[in-house]
């Protein structure tokens, strides 16, 4: 075995021939990250839906109110104007000339109603505008007779002008049009803005009320996923009965999972003790009682393989999060390649810049790298030479350290890449003959995940299999 270290700035031919370190995330994970950028949280989805519903309801109610307001308001306004005209006409008809002048002056002073003679050459503008004004004009014509004139201005003076006759004499009655004008657009806008603001506040409150229990449930589920059963307790005294039942059921499930986890730990400890004790006796008996050296060596090898398989099972079943601390990557790699120093069937090239420190569990990371190197040694031998050439490199990218372990073997069929990290799967057809329980890469993926990192596999474009590990960079 030869281990060569390149300068930190140099690029190796095999390493640079493939994609940059850590650029081969799983397709599903990449799609999920892209989708997450465009998805809204449940709170915002609920808030927008309720806001649109409430604002739409307010606008629809306002339009309905205005539509139903036109007819009765127009009829009432026309009735009031017609009554005023009829009363004024009756008062003028039954008064003499002096009293008529006094009455006209009194109406102008107290009621804001002016009565002026109507001349044939008067210029007037018909009282037409929106739908309500047209409706008022038609109603006044129907109540005061066909000869009634309703104008919005006479001789350039604006107002509500109503033309009527008294004993053959034509008059104009002028009044303030404000008494007939409907509620203005500014008033409606203020009302709508107030209703919209209240609707949005109500939507935010309702959305928060709905999503707060779901957020707590999501957090508790993530704690259970990470193995922290004590921090996953939910409130069982919630006011809402449905939320209370969900919380009670979740707490019971978490408690049951905690008990199962505890039972599993006890069971694994028992398996380790109960299986290793007879294996140790068998090995001792084989070494002392079997005379044939070849048979003895084969028996010892089988027992060692069984012992290694037990180690794999226990290692895969190890629960909990790893305790992370800053460690030197180059020191760990040097320790991992040391057992292969005198091996003739493996050649390791290193390309790791000095001073790189990662957040990891030193023992766990060493186990991961040793597992990958051993995997490359077993299955990544070159068909021409029978030697496994392994390249180990690392790069710093933002706050992450991207590590790559690559062999130059036959690689793996693309359809099998996603299955290699599944427990008990062995890619025998793609690579050389395999032994063991098929847990090596599963343990690697699970251990990297326990350290808060990512693990992925990809075939190299120039042959061989490349394993990518992404860990957090130590400050």
TrEMBL record:
It is an enzyme of class 2 (transferase). Residues 208-262 form the HAMP domain. The keyword Zinc-finger does not apply. The keyword Cell inner membrane applies. One of its GO terms (molecular function) is ATP binding. Its main location: membrane. Pfam families: HAMP, HATPase_c, HisKA, RisS_PPD. This is histidine kinase. It comes from Tibeticola sediminis. The lineage of its organism: Bacteria, Pseudomonadati, Pseudomonadota, Betaproteobacteria, Burkholderiales.
């Amino acid at each position: 075995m030869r281990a060569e270290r390149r300068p930190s700035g140099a690029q190796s031919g095999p390493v640079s021939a493939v994609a940059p370190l850590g650029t081969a995330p799983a397709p599903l994970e990449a799609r999920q990250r892209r989708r997450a950028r465009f998805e809204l949280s449940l709170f915002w989805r609920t808030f927008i839906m309720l806001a649109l519903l409430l604002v739409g309801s307010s606008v629809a109610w306002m339009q309905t109110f205005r539509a139903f307001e036109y007819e009765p308001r127009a009829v009432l306004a026309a009735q009031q104007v017609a009554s005023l005209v009829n009363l004024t006409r009756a008062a003028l008809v039954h008064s003499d000339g002096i009293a008529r002048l006094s009455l006209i002056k009194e109406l102008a002073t107290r009621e804001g109603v002016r009565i002026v003679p109507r001349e044939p050459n008067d210029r007037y503008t018909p009282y037409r505008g929106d739908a309500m004004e047209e409706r008022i004009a038609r109603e006044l014509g129907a109540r005061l007779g066909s000869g009634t004139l309703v104008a919005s201005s006479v001789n350039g003076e604006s107002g509500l002008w109503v033309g009527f006759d008294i004993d053959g004499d034509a008059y104009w009655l002028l009044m303030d049009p404000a008494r007939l004008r409907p509620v203005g657009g500014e008033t409606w806008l203020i009302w709508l803005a107030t209703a919209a603001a209240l609707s949005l506040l109500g939507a935010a409150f309702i959305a928060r009320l709905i999503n707060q229990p779901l957020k707590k449930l999501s957090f508790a589920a993530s704690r259970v996923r990470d193995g922290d059963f004590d921090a996953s307790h939910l409130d069982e005294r919630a006011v809402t009965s449905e939320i209370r039942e969900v919380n009670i059921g979740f707490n019971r499930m978490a408690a049951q999972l905690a008990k199962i986890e505890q039972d599993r730990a006890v069971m694994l400890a028992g398996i380790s003790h109960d299986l290793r004790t007879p294996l140790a006796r068998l090995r001792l008996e084989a070494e002392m009682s079997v005379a044939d050296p070849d048979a003895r060596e084969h028996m010892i090898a089988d027992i060692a393989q069984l012992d290694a398989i037990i180690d794999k099972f226990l290692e895969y079943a190890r629960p909990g999060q790893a305790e992370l601390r800053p460690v030197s990557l180059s020191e760990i790699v040097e320790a991992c390649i040391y057992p292969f120093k005198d091996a003739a069937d493996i050649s390791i090239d290193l390309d790791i810049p000095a001073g790189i420190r990662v957040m990891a569990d030193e023992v766990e990371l060493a186990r991961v790298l040793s597992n990958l190197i051993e995997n490359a040694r077993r299955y990544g031998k070159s068909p021409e030479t029978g030697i496994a050439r392994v390249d180990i490199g690392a790069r710093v990218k933002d706050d992450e350290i991207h590590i790559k372990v690559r062999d130059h073997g036959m690689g793996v069929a693309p359809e099998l890449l996603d299955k290699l990290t599944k427990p008990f799967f062995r890619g025998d057809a793609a690579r050389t003959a395999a032994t063991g329980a098929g847990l090596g890469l599963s343990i690697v993926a699970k251990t990297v995940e326990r350290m808060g990192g990512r693990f992925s596999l990809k075939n190299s474009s120039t042959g061989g299999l490349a394993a990518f590990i992404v860990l957090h960079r130590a400050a």
